[in-house]
From TrEMBL:
It comes from Prevotella herbatica. This is Chain-length determining protein. It is a multi-pass membrane protein. It comes from the Bacteria. Residues 30-78 form the Polysaccharide chain length determinant N-terminal domain. The keyword Membrane applies. Coiled coil: none annotated. Keywords: Cell membrane, Membrane, Transmembrane, Transmembrane helix. The chain crosses the membrane at residues 45-62, 336-354. Its main location: membrane. It is found in: Cell membrane.
Amino acid sequence: MDFESKDTQLNHINEASDNNLKIENEEETSIDLKAVFAALCKHKLLYIIVIPLSLIIGIIYAKSLPKYYKCQVTLAPELGGATGGGTLSSLASSMGYKVGGSKGDADAITPTLYPDLMNSVDFKTSLFDVKVHRMDSSRVMTYYDYLLYYQKTPWWSRLFSGKDTIRHEKVNPFMLTKKQTDIAKIINSNVVCDVDNKTGVITIDVTDQDPLIAAMMADSVKTRLQTFITRYRTNKARNDLESTKKLCIEAKRRYERARQLYGAFSDANQEVILESVRSKQEDLENDMQLQFNNYNALAASLQAAYAKVQAVTPVFTTLQSATVPTKKTSPQGSQIVLVFLFVGILIPTIYALAKEGELKRMIGI
């Protein structure tokens, strides 16, 4: 019984000490919070000065940034040339020509590579000569000249930039000038292409300070991308078509010449019954028939080549056309002002806590 009473007394003593520690910690915490609040109140004049000043600076900064508008265009390309060939593919197959469908005929440039294509120097420099005009003017100019001379910049950036006397130089994608490289970088940031890997839908976003130019460039980029892909996918078929066309024209010329020789010889020797004359006439007739068969086969190949070009020509369905945006995309003035307000509150707070020694105490805790 004595041992049990001693253990009970020890337990009561431990519980009492723990409660005292908790009370002391709570008192220290409440004292720290009061000290922090007192330190902040001691420098309330600093808040009164810095917060309105930060708001004014934030508003001026947001108002000084140029407005940007975004136009979006979406396309759905036809994937695979053979699937869309229809009767043309059947016609080509009946003539002994296979139109697409195999791994060997697969495109080297798939839709997932279109963004890389649009980021290439050749594609960006091809946009230099696109004709555009601003919303508030009917003067037509190139996109290069617009980006070079009519881009708005914040007032503080103009303080450190000299007068631009760069003249327009001939564009050589292999060796761009510094100014042409800068313009290409602007286009690279303004024109963005994205492809959905699941659906294959192509999204083209064009951002610009002028809403009309944003829409015009979105439509131009869409057209140029379609043209490039069409040329690429039909390049081999068009080359085959031109070669077959030349061979067909030459075969027709030889056939007509052989027919004329046979007709002239037959007309001149109608009453002649010599065996040598008959042999010569048969030779001319056989040559004429040979040239005709050759020309007939090439004519069929020419029709198949036309069918193949049509079959491999890609089809693009425009899901969303270019329209002139009515609302700006950036800058977000309210967000910018909130950031400046946060900084305007944070700086006096850190200064006040550091001045009164509370910051070290809080870090120590």
